[in-house]
Automatic annotation (TrEMBL):
Transmembrane segments: none annotated. One of its GO terms (cellular component) is membrane. The keyword Hydrolase applies. Residues 64-301 form the AB hydrolase-1 domain. One of its GO terms (molecular function) is monoacylglycerol lipase activity. One of its GO terms (biological process) is acylglycerol catabolic process. This is Alpha/beta hydrolase.
Amino acid sequence: MLKRIGLVITCLVLLFVTLYLITPRSTLVSYMINAERSVSGLSLHTLKIDELDIEYLRGGSGTPLVLLHGFGADKDNWNRIANYLTAYFDVIAIDLPGFGNSSDNIELDYDLFSQVARLSKTLDALNITEFDLAGSSMGGYIAGNFAAKYPSKVKKLWLISPFGVVDSEKSEMFSAIKIGHQPMVLPRNEAEFIQLVDFLFVDPPYIPSPIVSHLAHQAEQRLVLNTKIYEQIHRMRNGEAHPDLPLDHALKGYKGPVLVTWGQADRVLHVSGATKLKDTIPRAEIDIMAQIGHLPMMEAPKETANSFIAFALKQ
């Protein structure tokens, strides 16, 4: 009996290895990503806004919770945390124009004001008039400025290690840029992409090697576009960022409830930005996560989700 079970297990392993070897890499990556979305209760949708195609994930029920990814990322950055959020919220994770599978015309502008305007049109097309809004890094910068412009639409604002807090201390990444190093977030090959993953996390989440290769290849293919978007968002001068509308200025006196989540070990954007925002926003609360890097929703999805759920339920 034990020999038979061992034989079955061996055959299954050989089958999986064979499928891995003969399945095209792009198809294999699609299977993996779709499986992660399915487990988290998300399904894929598309939308046409003016000249743009917008792709997004949606799932769950309750108050709409719109999620905006960071620079160089896409809607699938939210898959793992969505597994904990969909029981409480109608989760909508959007590929911002220029990223993921949304339109990426290099002739267009991708500055803050363009992205805020496109987000407004996207949500109008989805008939979402009141919602919670979250953003990570660049997405937090866009989310914060959207909330400042449309405060009546945003019920609760969730900023996760957001870019754009100009009065914070200089981070390790921007200190390196100041002395002439290339921004870590613009990898040019797979080796640099792997270095970026190590830079983003204290304890990187498991990412299957086919997905690492796929993401690295995407980053290489998008280098020219990503460089343009990086420059339009960061407005670098003399090695320093000069965002169009800094968060600690745009949200000064903002009256809505805000949760600021930040990894204490963030090397991309300095954690001091959290206290700067708390000093600026009357109803802001901060959650500094020990031993966590730039992307808490990926590195510690359950803890990060529970923090916002507790915040949202008490408002």
